[in-house]
Amino acid sequence: MAEDLENAARAAAAALQAGRVTAADCTTLGWYRAVSGDHAAAAALFERALQLNPREVEAMVGLAGLHRAAGRLRDAALRCDAAIAAAPGYADAWLERAYVMAAGGVMDEAKRCYGEVLARAPAHPAAHAGLAAIAARDGEAEAGRRHAQAALAADPANTSAIAALAAIELEAGSAQTARDLIEPALARMAAPSPERMELLHTLGEACHRLRDHAAAYAAYARAKQDFAAVHAATFAGRPAHRDFIAGVTEGLAAMDCTAWPPVEKNDGPPHLFVLGYPRSGNTLLENVLASLPGTAAIEEMPTLREADLAFLAEPGGLARFATLDEAALGPYRTAYWQRAAQALSRDPAGTALVDMDPLKSIRLPLIARLFPAAKVLLVRRDPRDVVWSCFRTSFALSNAAMDFTTLEGAARHYDALMRLTDIALAKLPLAVHEVPYHRMVQDFDATTQGICAFIGMAWTEDLRRFDRTAKTRGVSTASARQVRRGLYDGTRQWEPYAEWLEPVMPILAPWIEKLGYAS
């Protein structure tokens, strides 16, 4: 198939050089450039194809794939929608839309789009593999096996189907079977790719279950190397995300917020921000809170985007933000509630709103000023567990995810956000309740009763059934499998990997001491 594309691209290039420019030739050459990794040239060719023929659906789908690879999911979805409008029967447009929805964590819509592909091409291996991956993630073993086997019947080398089957075997307790599935497939893959990255991560999990910790570390490290290589062009020239956090910290340290109003009392349903750091237990707490009657929860959505762009992305933005009057703040509050309503598909008025996003800790200055009646639940976990988990976890593409491709990068990112959080807690008018992860999993009732007292909501036994809530709501974060399993103690997972964490211990030691995890 690669040889066919190369031959077609050679013919298309010759046609373009001879001045016989057609949309089809531009599209063919664009796909060749995309597969070769030259995304800028591919995008230019796809755009040229659409100038020649605005209904060139293959070019629309090609652009959607490039946008998805760059993390521009909204642009990718719009391109898919345009392609589907132009050619509703074009299965690849539905397939790309499924990929976009899955990348954004909108799994119900991803499943629907994969179904649309199969309605048009019942044996389509990629659609079956996509459904297998979602089923494996959701603990639906029978459906996962069925779709994975259908994918492999059409394409015996389909790595996504192999990874889904391996994940199902892992969940069933058959780690060696999972390893045996993955290793031959990896042997056939010479270059970094999202597919190899997925298999390497699953291999790491299998080796971890088998207590082969050296092999597990090696697999996780290779998966992260692949992630960095696959996304290198997207992040070329960008500062590390930890440097962005350090810039916010510098702005906050210099900011005068003495005239800001104090924390306000709220007699209505509470407005809650669940913050902390990735892999600290935020998704667990979100689903616990979502089990309370009268709550609505948002999971890692950019609800503060307008304020972000105005005050965090611009030099001197926080200094300007500190001086705004109520009238000037109004549009940013309105934009937040509009985004919240969009995320929930309904108006959140009259409900207790839970906005969960660990990296919104960066936005604590915005939260304190825009929502003085909001309450912050700050989840804390042993820094070694947090940093190790960020390194071993397969994250969707984000600015922070690039910092997690090495243990040192993850440790320095953690240090940067903890420094910002410390200054925010010291300077800002905030109602904050710290939630230690280890207490939540080891003394669930007492910890959640304390949380309910803080937020002003009655504790009920429904909180213990958060796993049912997670299954009903769906979970789009990397914690989906853990939360679906119910309460379990995930503390001290770093210990088998202590030798690999040793080089970053000087970075983490102050936080281990400060947060009380030194003993």
Explain this structure to me?
The chain is mostly helical and 519 residues long. The chain has a domain at 241-514: 3-Layer(aba) Sandwich (Rossmann fold), CATH 3.40.50. The chain is built from 29 helices and five strands. The chain has a five-stranded parallel beta sheet with strand order 2-3-1-4-5, sandwiched between helices. Helix 8 (125-137) packs parallel to helix 10 and helix 21 crosses helix 23. The model has no long low-confidence stretch (mean pLDDT 93).
Structure in a nutshell:
With 519 residues, the protein is mainly α. The protein has helices at residues 2-17, 23-36, 39-52, 57-69, 73-86, 91-103, 107-120, 125-137, 141-154, 159-171, 175-187, 194-209, 213-230, 232-235, 241-254, 282-290, 305-312, 317-322, 326-344, 364-370, 383-392, 399-403, 407-427, 437-442, 444-455, 466-473, 480-484, 498-501, 505-514, and strands spanning 271-275, 295-299, 352-356, 375-380, 431-436. Helix 2 runs parallel beside helix 4, helix 5 runs antiparallel to helix 6 and helix 15 runs parallel beside helix 23 (407-427).
The CATH H-level superfamily of one domain is: P-loop containing nucleotide triphosphate hydrolases
Describe the largest sheet: 5 strands, parallel
User: What Rg do the Cα atoms give?
Assistant: 24 Å
* CATH-derived architecture of one domain: 3-Layer(aba) Sandwich
